[in-house]
């Protein structure tokens, strides 16, 4: 992990999951999850590492970004605390407010794939960005 802050993190409480219900956790290729959710949904009331990095002044700007690579054998994903890596996207980011605390929930408009509308969320809908989820989901 590239460190962009000035000092190492002083204190973070980590919670280990030793058992999870469901076959997904047995057969999936998980190697760990770094909880980046809002503190309202943290297990045991622990402050997520993101809050600790902010409170200790380790982050240049209050933004984190993650890139998920489809070819994990060649190169894994990347997380950047305090910004983003322009090598992994084109254009500009659109910053939107969080509409519900807990998950990083926000409002979004129509979904496009390859520049063509899918019709999903054409009237607007709620969405979440969740770095601890093992899959992508959308409207049914």
UniProtKB/TrEMBL annotation:
Domain of life: Eukaryota
GO molecular function per UniProt: aspartic-type endopeptidase activity
Alphabetical UniProt keywords: Aspartyl protease, Disulfide bond, Glycoprotein, Hydrolase, Protease, Zymogen
Pfam families listed in its UniProt record: Asp (PF00026)
Domain Peptidase A1: 1-140
Gene3D superfamilies: Acid Proteases (2.40.70.10)
GO biological process, one term: proteolysis
UniProt record similarity statement: Belongs to the peptidase A1 family.
The protein, known as: Peptidase A1 domain-containing protein
């Amino acid at each position: 992990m590239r460190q962009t802050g000035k000092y190492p993190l002083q204190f973070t409480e980590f919670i280990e999951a030793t058992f999870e219900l469901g076959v997904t956790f047995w057969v999936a290729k998980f190697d760990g999850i770094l909880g980046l959710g809002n503190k309202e949904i943290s297990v045991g009331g622990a402050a997520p590492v993101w809050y600790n990095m902010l409170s200790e002044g380790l982050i240049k700007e209050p933004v984190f970004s993650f890139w998920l690579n489809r070819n994990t054998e060649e190169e894994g994903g990347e997380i950047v605390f305090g910004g983003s890596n322009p090598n992994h996207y084109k254009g500009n980011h659109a910053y939107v407010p969080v509409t519900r605390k807990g998950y990083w929930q926000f409002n979004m408009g129509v979904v496009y794939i390859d520049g063509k509308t899918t019709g999903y969320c054409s009237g607007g809908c709620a969405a979440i960005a969740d770095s601890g989820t093992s899959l992508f989901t959308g409207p049914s």
